[in-house]
Design goal:
Strand content: 15-25%
Strand order of the largest sheet: 6-5-4-7-10-11
Helix content: 25-40%
Distance between the termini: 38 Å
CATH superfamily of the largest domain: von Willebrand factor, type A domain
CATH topology of the largest domain: Rossmann fold
CATH class of the largest domain: Alpha Beta
Number of domains: 3
Length: 561
């Protein structure tokens, strides 16, 4: 710039007439060019602001779901006016409309930038234009909604109970994703309610993944089935005990078993490995809560009833390998008369949640399962997560007889694609309103001894559930109190979250309400795939917004131009 002014002075001081004329002309041109560059810079800034507002508008618009043409246009105008700010000249001149064979949603916008120096050339304003287009990710999602149905979900959070708030949130999420897909489904869903256990459904009683013949190492762990002389009644499985106690015809499902299962032992405990009939421990054992001594948590039969005889093989087995309390005696279930249907809640104790819904494209069925949710029981996040994972695992036990375009689905392989080439992304949304709970089961009893005598004894077994009793040490060692049991449950959740994420599954976690401890919140936060996938809604309004945010994040948008 200094060189330019120096040149100007030399031209101006030159007394030659021709030079003066040349200077006047060149100076005018130079000044015009400098002014034009200033106007161009201003228009570039206006264009950048216009493009940013257009981009923000199209991204927000693409998340609106299915709107009519008039609704889409009105919403676009509203969003654009908000994003552009106080520019009275800015407007949408074309769109919103679908382009590129319907893949993109686009708008064209325009505004003006006031000219200064270019007014010398009778240009008062510079027209600025922008185009913004967005496309939704072409991924397909397999989503497991793992939803806490424990008793505390009946508490109020805002204008309604937490369970009702959850129902509204989950249903609205499905509606939003269904609308985003239009005529093409963007997701399949499984609904996995959990409390102290997970109910897979009594219709699976005869399924090949169930331990129908008492082969698993844990099948007879708490009710002994001795193979000795004098043990006259030896049922083939726990299902036979249900059938002995109850009239199966009294139940709509055809069985008194409600549908809950124990978690598998050993290396299969935290695993989505398939059930294999040649590997007994890989099969799922139906939950059966034993009759316990009087004063315990679950006493519903006489320890000397059924076909029991004092000193028989069942009693000797209970004394030798049990606690001598009569809890493990098989003979007492060999009743002569069926029990009333109302007694079925005893052997089904800790099975309080509704049956899960395997992976399906049927949104109506998924919403129906959500509508059926009911609050009851303790909180066992491990089982909820495990079964949520298994519903979207390629090794799922829930294989449909026929995969259709609208019904139950067979999960794809990890990193797999749909038949039309879309990448499949597996997602778990875990929602809970509290910490893991197990619960103690302390009682005193007269313990029978080998010589025929008795001694007064006390024990705390913890409540029976999908991990059996505390003494079964399913999670590594036998806790001696509730705090140690809960600590084990928390540790298994941490381990399980890592195993699931290592498979490429994305986990969202939602801690609903104010009753979760600091430790519980830390577990949920660590379980989430990243910090922005952990949420802490406090009311029914908040949880609806949370599930909408999750739905938005799954509808991954990208600007295409």
């Amino acid at each position: 710039m200094s060189k330019l002014w120096s040149m100007s002075r030399r031209f101006s001081e030159n007394q030659s007439g021709s030079v003066a004329i040349m200077f006047a002309l060149s100076a005018a041109a130079t000044i015009f060019l400098l002014g034009a560059s200033i106007d161009f810079t201003r228009s570039s800034m206006v264009r950048a602001r216009l493009q940013a507002a257009s981009d923000a508008t199209i991204l927000a618009l693409a998340r609106q779901g299915s709107l009519s043409g008039l609704e889409l246009s009105a919403r676009a105008t509203q969003l654009f006016a908000t994003n552009i700010g106080g520019d009275p000249n800015a407007r949408i001149v074309a769109g919103p409309d679908h382009r590129n064979n319907g893949v993109e949603l686009c708008i064209d916008t325009m505004t003006t930038a006031n000219a200064s120096f270019m007014q010398m050339a009778k240009v008062d304003a510079i027209t600025v234009r922008a185009t913004a287009c967005a496309a939704v990710s072409d991924a397909f999602y397999e989503i497991a909604l793992v939803l806490d149905n424990s008793g505390s979900m009946s508490e109020w959070a805002g204008a309604t109970t937490k369970i009702n708030g959850l129902k509204s949130a989950a249903a609205a999420m499905l509606d939003k994703l269904a609308a985003a897909g239009g005529t093409s489904a963007v997701a399949a869903y499984s609904i996995v309610p959990f409390a102290a256990s997970v109910n897979i459904g009594p219709q699976y009683r005869t399924a090949p993944f169930m331990d129908r013949y008492g082969q698993s190492a844990i099948h007879w762990q708490n009710i002994f089935n001795p193979v000795v002389a004098g043990a006259s009644w030896r049922p083939q499985s726990r299902f036979d005990i249900y059938d002995k106690l109850f009239n199966a015809a009294d139940f709509a499902s055809g069985t008194a078993w409600s549908g809950c299962v124990e978690e598998r032992p050993g290396d299969l405990f935290l695993s989505d490995a398939p059930a294999d009939p040649t590997l007994p421990n890989s099969l799922y054992v139906p939950m059966f809560a034993p009759d316990e001594p009087y004063g315990a948590d679950n006493s519903y039969l006489s320890d000397s009833g059924g076909s029991c005889v004092a000193g028989d093989a069942y009693e000797q087995k209970d004394i030798a390998d049990g606690a001598g309390s009569g809890r493990s005696k098989m003979c007492k279930y060999n009743v002569a008369s069926k029990l009333s249907k109302s007694y079925a809640s005893y052997p089904n104790k800790s099975c309080t949640s509704k049956p899960l819904l395997p992976l399906t494209l049927d949104v109506a069925s998924a919403k129906s399962a959500i509508s059926d949710l009911a609050a009851s029981g303790n909180t066992n996040i491990t089982s909820g997560l495990l079964w949520g994972w298994r519903t979207i695992s390629p090794a799922t036990p829930f294989m449909p007889a026929l995969t259709t375009s609208t019904g139950q689905q067979t999960p794809t392989s990890y990193g797999g694609r749909t038949g039309d080439g879309r990448l499949v992304k597996k997602v778990i949304v875990l929602m809970t309103d509290g910490d893991n709970t197990w619960g103690s089961n302390a009682y005193s009893y007269y313990r029978k001894l080998a010589g025929g005598g008795t001694s007064y004894a006390s024990i705390d077994t913890g409540r029976y559930g999908p991990f059996g009793y505390w003494q079964n040490a399913r999670m590594g060692y036998a806790p001696t109190g509730n705090s140690g049991a809960v600590e084990q449950m928390d540790d298994t959740v941490k381990t399980l979250c890592g195993l699931i994420k290592n498979k490429g599954v994305t986990i969202y976690t939602v801690g609903f309400g104010s009753s979760i401890s600091a430790n519980g919140k830390a577990i949920l936060q660590a379980c989430a795939s990243d910090p922005d996938k952990y949420f802490t809604p406090n009311s029914d309004v908040d949880i609806v917004a949370t599930f909408q945010t999750i739905a938005d994040s799954l509808q991954i948008l990208r600007l295409t131009r």
